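Structure ticket #2291
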Amino acid sequence: MKADQYVTVAREGMHESEINRSRFLCSLAPAATEQEAQDFVARIRKEHPTATHNCFAYVVGADASVQKASDDGEPGGTAGVPMLQMLMRRDIRYAVAVVTRYYGGVKLGAGGLIRAYGGVVGEALDELGTVTRRRYRLATVTVDHQRAGKTQNDLRSTGRTVVDLRYGAEVEIEVALPEADLPAFEAWLADTTAGSAGLTLGGETYAP
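Resolution: structure written out below.
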């Protein structure tokens, strides 16, 4: 069963925190694929070549099917895992976090590291904000050119999301609908267009 919605990072950005003289920089970004997440990690590492550690965690998939974390030289389980746990606790998906640490001379101990790495990810999420994306079914409404304008207006006035418009022999209006709304939508469409519109169900998408 696919998730009906997920939460992700609103935008790419960075949050800095100082803990016992160590600088912790948390870089966060949305990532649509695992490759995007890995590219972001590589980019941040390049930006901070002299950092003591560049630890990362990412979650890809609305059902969190891909989860990876790296301690990058910190004691096992004290960096990447708490970062990943923070993303999961906040229900964050399709996102990548890199925490860059510049060591300041004071050892934090395992508990201190876990709190620092998890905490700075939480703070970054608070600062950059999150967006909820819901699962929609794509459906294509086919109408003749005479009805196209009115049908579009009717769709928008009932709060439905028009994703795409294609003009050919007929006009195809692609809409995104919550799965539960499909039966009511079919009835509404038949009523509004006096049964003249065609409806084809397509794949799924996630949208705000």
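Closing remark: DSSP finds five helices and ten strands in the chain.
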